[in-house]
Write a structure and sequence with these properties.
Layout lengths: L2 H29 L5 H5 L17 H4 L4 H7 L3 E13 L7 H8 L5 E17 L3 E4 L1 H4 L4 E5 L5 E10 L4 E6 L22 E6 L7 E12 L10 E4 L11 E3 L5 E8 L10 E5 H12 L11 E5 L2 H7 L7 E6 L4 H5 L6 E5 L2 E2 L3 H9 L6 E8 L2 E8 L12 E2 L10 E4 L2 H7 L8 E5 L5 H5 L6 E5 L2 E2 L3 H13 L4 E8 L2 E8 L2
Antiparallel strand pairs: 1-2, 1-4, 2-3, 3-6, 4-5, 5-6, 7-8, 7-10, 8-9, 9-12, 10-11, 11-12, 13-14, 14-15, 15-16, 15-17, 17-18, 19-20, 20-21, 21-22, 22-23, 22-24, 24-25
């Protein structure tokens, strides 16, 4: 028997052995008595569903090629160029009128130039010319153009960009001709170890395809965006790949490549892609009006470590401990309570607050999320109907007047809607310091934009009404000492200032 026959025979023997082992194992699970009603009502996330994934069993299998998938998907991946018009002057002092008059005799000759300042990739997700890319590819640009895989070039219109998801949507007009496009995959079925291809334009060398596997799912701690639950892959991703496609073996879009972890700027096999479910939400919002409404769950969670898991009676650290529930918010109306442990959201395990909020943000307003929770150690289900966060994201700025430590500062009430928009925790309200002009009392006291006023002379500040009442009281009876509590970068700062 030659070497090839030995390999084939061994492969067949292994496959037979695996098949003989697999059937009894499943049979044993099925035959072990009646199912537990509690587990039936809330399935355990630890039980993985059986699927049809297989490993190559022959040399022929190992010689298979990704070429058919690339041929089908690559035409839908494009190059995205953004440019900005820059005005330059021949006078080195052009920005200073006085010195320009002295040294340039007032003649500051200028010229306008168009400078390409960004090169990235994009994915056609609509045959009518809808393209999704990363926000950081287009955020500094004023004009955009797209080059297709077949070298055709089109001017592109920016439809919408969203820094918090790091996604942007462009549109091109191909003269009515349908364009190749990718369909969205259901990333709920994606598993660690699945094969994927990354397609983009690294370093501007031209369209490039790299292969790898899904290295991890639901990465929420990489700090790339506020609504991040990234797919991690070891497919090579380099500068220029941003906005390109991560596709599965069915040629579907599973994610938009967004960033890498690298000390030297090159690929180290740790790349991150924004899941297709979030991409779909942003594209839908762009196509249907250009406004992205992020549904709000109305609950704040804490990561469960080993100590908390032991105190809660859990077998291991898992889930999210509900630390607070916003009154009359979606979670409150659904019956979620402080102290509940959220194990899964829509069947997917969550391990921190960001992961829980990400899944909520992929839902449309009015849709329902199913939360599998533990309450007192017993499994239950809670159905949360998603709604927009209360308040307005365009709250009115107010400039503080009078003789108080805040005089001169522009402030705004921190509502949940505004907090979600600017990426600030607005769960407990407060007054946000928006700007602090020079030569004002507030600037002299040391206030900075982004500070959140929490307390004034012992009074808790949650709304503008609370703030106005505290200042009115101080105006009627000027205090000898102002006692303030503010929050800066998540840190509470208590201070006392001399009054009267």
């Amino acid at each position: 028997m030659n070497r090839q026959n030995i390999i084939l025979a061994a492969s067949a023997g292994i496959a037979t052995a695996l098949a003989m082992l697999a059937v009894p194992a499943v049979g044993q699970l099925v035959s072990q008595g009646a199912p537990n009603p509690a587990i039936t009502a809330s399935p355990s996330p630890d039980i993985a569903p059986v699927d049809a994934r297989v490993i190559p069993e022959t040399q022929l299998g190992l010689q298979q090629s990704f070429a058919p998938i690339v041929k089908r998907t690559a035409p839908a991946v494009v190059n995205v160029y953004s440019s900005v018009n820059v005005t330059r002057s021949n006078c080195p002092y052009a920005q200073d009128p006085f010195w320009a008059q002295v040294y340039c005799n007032g003649n500051t000759q200028t010229r306008s130039e168009k400078v390409d300042n960004s090169l990235g990739s994009g994915v056609i997700v609509g045959s009518d010319g809808v393209i999704v890319t990363n926000n950081h590819v287009v955020e500094a640009g004023q004009e955009f153009r797209v080059v297709l895989n077949d070298r055709r070039e089109f001017a592109a219109q920016l439809v919408m960009k969203d820094a918090r998801t790091d996604l942007a949507v462009l549109r091109i007009d191909a003269g009515g001709q349908p364009l190749p496009m990718l369909t969205f995959a259901d990333t709920r079925n994606l598993q660690i170890g699945d094969l994927v291809l990354a397609i983009g334009n690294p370093f501007g060398v031209g369209q490039t395809v790299t292969s790898g596997i899904v290295s991890a799912l639901a990465r929420t701690d990489v700090g790339a965006s506020d609504f991040g639950s990234f797919i991690q892959t070891d497919a090579s991703i380099n500068p220029g790949n941003s906005g390109g496609a991560l596709v599965d073996m069915q040629g579907r879009l599973v994610g938009v490549n967004s960033m890498i972890f690298s000390k030297g700027g090159g690929s180290n096999g740790i790349g991150f892609a924004i899941p297709a479910e979030m991409v779909r939400r942003v594209v839908d919002a762009a196509v249907h009006g250009g406004t992205l409404v992020r549904p709000w769950i109305g609950a704040k969670g804490e990561t469960i470590d080993s100590a908390k898991a032991k105190a809660l009676g859990l077998d291991r650290p898992r889930g999210v401990l509900i630390a607070d529930v916003y009154r009359n918010g979606p979670a409150d109306k659904a019956g979620l309570r402080e102290g509940d442990v959220v194990i899964t959201v829509d069947g997917r395990e969550v391990f921190d607050d960001r992961g829980m909020k990400f899944i909520a943000a992929t839902k449309a307003e009015g849709e329902t999320a199913t939360l599998a929770i533990l309450r007192g150690g017993k499994p239950q289900q809670v159905f949360v109907k998603m709604s927009a966060p209360p308040g307005t994201s365009q709250a009115e700025l107010v400039q503080v007047e009078g003789s108080n430590p805040f005089a001169g500062a522009a402030v705004v009430e921190l509502t949940p809607a505004l907090g979600e928009e600017i990426g600030v925790d607005a769960f407990n309200g407060g007054i946000l310091v928006y700007s602090v002009p020079a030569r004002t009392i507030a600037r002299n006291v040391g206030f900075q934009p982004g500070d959140i006023i929490r307390e004034v002379n012992g009074a808790t500040i949650r709304t503008k009404r609370d703030f106005d009442a505290a200042l009115k009281k101080a105006e009627a009876t000027p205090p000898t000492t102002w006692r303030l509590a503010t929050e800066r970068n998540g840190q509470r700062i208590e201070s006392e200032l001399r009054g009267r």
